[in-house]
Amino acid sequence: MAASILRRCWGSLLAQRCRTGDVPVLHNGQTWRRAQAPGSIASGRRAGNSPAGERGVAPWVAVVGLEIHAQISSNSKLFSGSQVQFAAPPNSLVSFFDASLPGTLPALNRRCVEAAVMTGLALNCRINKKSLFDRKHYFYADLPAGYQITQQRLPVAVNGSLSYSLCVGGKKNQMVTRTVRIKQIQLEQDSGKSLHDDTRSQTLIDLNRAGVGLMEVVMEPDMSSGEEAAAAVRELQLILQTLGSSQAIMAEGQLRVDANVSVHHPGEAYGVRTEVKNINSARFLARAIDYEIQRQIKELENGQTVMNETRAFDYKLGCTIPMRDKEGKQDYRFMPEPNLPPLILYDSKSLPANMNHQQVVNIDWIRERLPDLPSVKRVKLVEQYGILPEHSFTLLNEDGLMEFFQNVVRQTQMNPKKVIGWILNDMLCYLKQHNLTVKESPVSSLLLADLLNLLERGAISSSAAKQVFEELWKGEGKTPLQIVKEKKLELIQDQQEFEQICQAVMEGHQEEVMEIKKGNRKVLNKLIGLVQRTTRGRADPVLVKQILEKRLSQ
Amino acid sequence: MLRVSLREISAALKEGQVTPTELCQRCLSFIKATKFLNAYITIAEETALKQAEESEERYRRGQILGDLDGIPVAVKDNFNTAGIETTCASNMLKGYIPPYNATVVQKLLDQGAVLLGKTNLDEFAMGSGSTDGIFGPVRNPWSYSRQYRDKCVQNSHPEKEDSNWLITGGSSGGSAAAVSSFTCFAALGSDTGGSTRNPAAHCGVVGLKPTYGLISRHGLIPLVNSMDVPGILTRCVDDAAIVLGVLAGHDPKDSTTVQDPFKSFELTCFTDASKLCIGIPKEYHAPGLSSETLALWSKAADLFENAGAKVIEVSLPHTRYSVVCYHVLCTSEVASNMARFDGLEYGHRSSMDKSTEVMYAATRREGFNDVVRGRILSGNYFLLKQNYENYFIKAQKVRRLIAKDFVNVFHSGIDVLLTPTTLSDTIPYVEFIKEDNRTRSAQDDIFTQAANMAGLPAITVPTALSEKGLPVGLQFIGRAFQEQQLLTVAKWFEKQVKFPMIQLQGIMDHGHTVSHHQKSAFFS
To answer: Which residue among A104, A145, A338 places its CB closest to the CB of B226?
Structure first.
């Protein structure tokens, strides 16, 4: 099907964009501080004319709930056989059903159901053995049927929870774990994409995404800051990726976050909430929410009211702006989807004996095959390797870093507690500097392990090891040993050679020798440094000290 | 030759008495001769002849695909036919050529059937007269029958006066007229509230609405998804059984079809009626039921009783809520189903394109007639958040009660229910249009729609001619998925009543008059 082209009113959003000058810019949340009570925010304003001012620094409490759309990782769409693929040519993955040709009917994709059940189990949900599909009606150019098939009344999973951790405290060095309740997980169709061409007043429609399976994860408003929301989303993302139920790549729109935000004074009723839509980047998630919290506080303190509205985050301007509301308040006119019978799931007890296993979804079967979740993996890392909990977070947060670490540990004699330092300080630092993923690293786990083995065996010093690492980063295909040889970085093992060098240094620096002999031990370090310089780091500092001390006492 | 049954023509083809091409050509020329009936919207002459040729080749090689090989059929114009325009008699889909075949159409073609064309209907099947489509009303072939003309027309009007032509009923009026006027041997209709049975009764043919879930709806452009069923129109009950055998069965493209494999059956004549239990629902003795139809109904009951069957009066107490309940459910689903017609992907698109919203509104105003727009409006009203509970949910509950009524009756030992199909025989177009579509639909669906609510199989069998010389049909409603029992009873009844064949004056060129069904033994 060719892309449909039509004109539409698209000016309103542009017209309502705020000018940069009007926008108070937040820098990493530094314009506000946490007050005494967890989750409450001191506004920092002491304006006598504001109602809050009468009570001194009135604390505000923010309430944040999230609705997250995760695209299900599946070969075909939720109700049709069309392929699912990112960045395919426009309208190349559209079945008759996806284009809503009259007379077409939905046929539910089992893989999508399994992904939702898996996710529900991982999020401690109750899985509904019977769930229903509904139609949600609204007119939009990228919604060909005029309705979306979703699960409004009876979703596939309900009443779960998600634990996530974040760093708190002034130096961000204290790790705390919080829990957010999961209200429900529902299966639903994605819409197509509208590409608005403002200059030509046209909208181009791409239906490749139309009908792709989504899991909408609804989180209760148990969070109180952008940071918490970001941590919760990050944990969810890791879980989805671990399960394989969604690739959850935000940049590809596979994970889309809408945030419900309101503020109120403790002990008072919740404030009017706004919905910040389509936050498609992990980087901006916390900023968007924190901006919205601050905006609402500012409005209220200025005697204004917060309107129940939908806002979009403009990442260029760093602020939220009111969205052109889809014709004001929508009535979605929900109705049961008559073309889909109730979705019935089984467990091992309820599974009828004569049922074809290819045609049913068995909850117990899925539960037994759930992989280790990130939280379990972290505990295991801490227990097995003796590393710090925060290190386990970093290992999991970078895709593939945990496996890399484990591979290095497996191939070295070095203590994992020392290995983690190399991984997190050197390796990760280089990756970040060069904007690379773990997979793209020019230093393989084997090479790093070789290097660390040289260090561990005492063949090179740690400063030499850093030089070798730098060489390895160039990716010239040399082994650490080759580099050590070429650059002559190995520690001097020959005792005699060592003694000679030390002797030479002492002879060349008689004044210092005298000082030491007089009792100024500090000068010894200078001599050690000089030996190191002469050997270009090839001397074991402990050995150097021993030799020097022996000779000085002679 | 065109007046024989499907089974007979199938035998004739097998014996080589006629070739598929000959048969197809005869049907096509007869369609042209009866063009004034307005039964067909599209005549697929070229593809039909090609299909007939292919069929002929198969007969030559002795490799026919099945009983339908070479048999000319017609399909209501709300089933998708690949490469053949599918309009739903609406401006919205005028010129729309679907890229795929409805499952039922594909099954007919896979059996070697020859698709003659697409038959006329009310716009999007919304109506009970086949009068409300953009291609104009369908005329009932009985308007031109000797039986009707002899009794009626001569008294008041000169012979050539045409103003008294009769409606077919609807919404599958085109299919009913096509079968009745011998332009095809079987036709597909759709049945949501009686749309197959009502015109079948008015046109003197057999109309079968199978159990919901037995036949795939994939490719049928929906009216009410939870009630729509493809319907079968034939000249006799045996033929309906043959077509049902071809169409029934699970379709992975329609999740509401049942998984159990369908075993096609041949109808046997039962000899012993004594084990049969016929229910007569008293609520179907409704206001507006013509005395003639009532008399026929009770005569039919006697017929069973005299043959030794048990005939028992039963109650379906929630029947009277059926019409209003149907109205809420139907319009709600219509509002939803019609949302896709926005002018973007297919179908009519207005030239008013100031904005997407303006384009939507103009497209839908230009594309739909008043009936469709009216139903969309009421349906959206019922689905509004503030009304949903009071209307839609309530209607669903009532629907459940109506369905339960049937369960109770069948549970008490009733095998088949016998009811009228329509209030009376058909009426002239000029009379029909005195009431609006909504009123007519509510009246005319009264005996038929409950079977749709409950998903049950039902069949109308032409029973006798009225005093005006027009057909009257009676309806049998069976247990879910018990088509074989239902059709067996219907066939026995059909055999007893000997419904007379329509005598079309001056239309049939080939003058051989037939024969065995000429006189009604039942009620003449």
So the answer is: A338
User: How far lies B404's CA from each of B428, B451, B455, in Å?
Assistant: 37, 12, 11
CA distance A265 to chain B (A): 32
What is the Cα–Cα distance from B501 to B522, expressed in whole angstroms? Answer: 13
Q: What residues of chain B lie within 8 A of the CB of A137, using their CB? A: 336, 339, 383
CB nearest A139 (choices: B93, B253, B342): B342
Q: Which residues of B are catalytic?
A: 76, 171, 195
A333 at interface of B, judged by CB pairs closer than 8 A: yes
Q: How many angstroms separate the CA atoms of B30 and B185, rounded?
A: 13
Q: What is the pLDDT of residues A476-516, one digit of tens each?
A: 888 999 998 888 888 877 778 878 888 888 888 888 888 88
B351 touches chain A (CB under 8 A): no
pLDDT-derived band at A258, boundaries 50, 70, 90: very high
> Positive or negative CA dihedral for A232, A236, A237, A242?
positive
Interchain pair B253, A100: CB under 8 A? no
Cα A311 from Cα A279, distance rounded (Å)? 10
Q: Which residues pair with B323 in a beta bridge?
A: none
Contact at CB, B340 and A100, closer than 8 angstroms: yes
- Which uninterrupted H or E stretch holds B209? strand B206-209
Adjacency order of strands within the sheet including B186-191: B40-43, B114-119, B72-76, B186-191, B229-234, B206-209, B458-465, B471-477, B416-420, B277-281, B310-314
| Closest CB to A1 among B80, B345, B359 | B345
pLDDT score at A42: 44
CB-closest option in B225, B339, B340 to A338: B225
B400 inside 8 A of chain A by CB = no
Q: What is the Cα–Cα distance from A554 to A549, expressed in whole angstroms?
A: 9
Q: Which amino acid is at B50?
A: K
State how far the Cα of B77 lies from the Cα of B221, in Å rounded to an integer: 9
pLDDT, one tens digit per residue, over B62-94 is 999 999 999 999 999 999 999 999 999 999 999
Q: In this complex, is the C-beta atom of A137 within 8 Å of any C-beta atom belonging to chain B?
A: yes
Contact B455, B329 (CB under 8 A): no
pLDDT value at position A56? 52
pLDDT band at A194 (very low <50, low <70, confident <90, very high): very high
Give the position of tokens 């909504």.
B438
In this prediction the ipTM stands at: 0.94
A360 in contact with chain B, both atoms CB, cutoff 8 A: no
Q: Do A333 and B336 touch (CB under 8 A)?
A: yes
Lowest mean pLDDT among A50-54, B59-63, B166-170: A50-54
- Shortest distance, CA A399 to any CA of chain B (angstroms): 40
Q: Could you give the C-alpha distances from A371 to A151, A156, A294, in angstroms and in order?
A: 27, 21, 40
The token duo for B336 is 């939803």
**For all residues of chain A together, what is the average pLDDT?**
86
Q: Confirm or reject contact between B178 and chain A (CB < 8 A).
A: no
Residue B438: pLDDT band with limits 50, 70, 90: confident
pLDDT (average), residues B315-326: 94
* Any A CB within 8 A of B380 CB: yes
What is the rounded distance in angstroms from the CA atom of residue A154 to the CA atom of residue A342?
A: 10
CA distance, residue B472 to nearest chain A CA (Å): 33
Please list every residue in chain B whose beta carbon sits closer than 8 Å to the beta carbon of residue A189. none
State the DSSP code for B284.
G
Give residue B34's pLDDT: 95
Write out the E strands in B29-185.
Answer: 40-43, 72-76, 114-119
Give B499-521 pLDDT, tens digit per residue: 999 998 765 544 434 333 444 44
Nearest CA in chain B to A11: B355
